[in-house]
Amino acid sequence: MSSSTSGSSSSSWQDRLDEACREFQIAAPIFQIVSDRRGGRTAWSSRVTVHGSVHQARFWYDGKNLHNAKEDAAEVAYNWLNSSHLNSRSTGHGGW
Question: Superkingdom, according to UniProt (predicted)?
Fold first, then answer.
């Protein structure tokens, strides 16, 4: 089973995050959509909880782009998960 998630442009960040959670044997990510009323419009964003840590999307989106908000949050969480796992592995504090 060969998987090159970091080089695959067809894989969504949400899929990559799900796969990383399975690989590290932690609970699946939990997404939450958040909104902020701005004048006459509403801006939308997302946050995702992974392994007890909440990661906020970097940007706010129009309502028709909620998928982008979830992708943004998933990318942030994916990068955090991989860097924190690599750091714990390199410092000898392996195991979650």
Answer: Eukaryota
